[in-house]
Amino acid sequence: MKTVRFSQVVAKCGHPESHLLLTDPKQDHALQSALKAKRVMTLMQASVGTKSDWGEPGFHPGTHRQYLIFPKSLAAYASKAVIGIKYELLNETEAPRPRPKAPPPPKKAPIRAKPPKAIKPPPPVEKEPTPPEPPPRKVKDQAPEITSLKRQVKRAMQALEKGKQVAAFSLLQKILDA
After folding, report:
1. Are 73 and 38 in contact (CB under 8 A)?
2. ∠ at Cα 135 (130, 138), nearest 5°?
């Protein structure tokens, strides 16, 4: 496999940005669009020993890998190994710093409205005296038929309170039939 220096790739294709895989690569839209444009390079990083890091254009999943996305296509380097990785050539973008909040605008003095004109209440309306209510009639004054009717209605109401609707209905029917 032929080799090419990382600095030559950066000179032709621009400064790459490191891409962190947080989801499945098939679900990562930024990575998928870069893959279609052939702008992805995989850096193989040795976890043990003194072997230096090297890269290969394209996406090669595995452990101890770092993915770079270049601004231009890497198609010219498709079959070459990239050596001499210089991490200082990466175009690391800093996280945007939070902007300080603008101070609130000065409060304006409240506009004072003219007090409303005094509205005089209407003169009180005199009520006509109501005739006194007649005193309630005593139970003794009622006819015996009315008192028995009231007793039967009370029994029907008690049956309803106990949840006996059929019994209450039959009592009310007896009252009407009598």
Report:
1. yes
2. 160
**DSSP assignment of 14-69:** ---EEE---S-TTT-HHHHHHHHTT-EEEEE--SSSSPPPEEEES----SSEEEEE
Cβ proximity of 77 and 39 under 8 Å: no
**CA–CA dist 3, 76 (Å, integer):** 12
pTM above 0.70, yes or no: no
Question: Could you tell me how many helices (H) and strands (E) the chain has, helices first?
Answer: 4, 6
Tokens of 81: 């190994």
Among left, alpha and beta (phi > 0; psi -120 to 50; other), residue 169 is alpha
19 touches 92 (CB < 8 A): no
Other Cβ atoms closer than 10 A to 11: 11
Span 44-94, pLDDT tens digits: 988 787 888 899 999 999 888 999 999 999 999 988 999 998 888 886 655
How far apart (Å, rounded) are the C-alpha atoms in residues 87 and 106?
Answer: 49
In Å, how far from its chain's centre is CA 96? 25
Q: Which residue has the tokens 């003794």?
A: 140
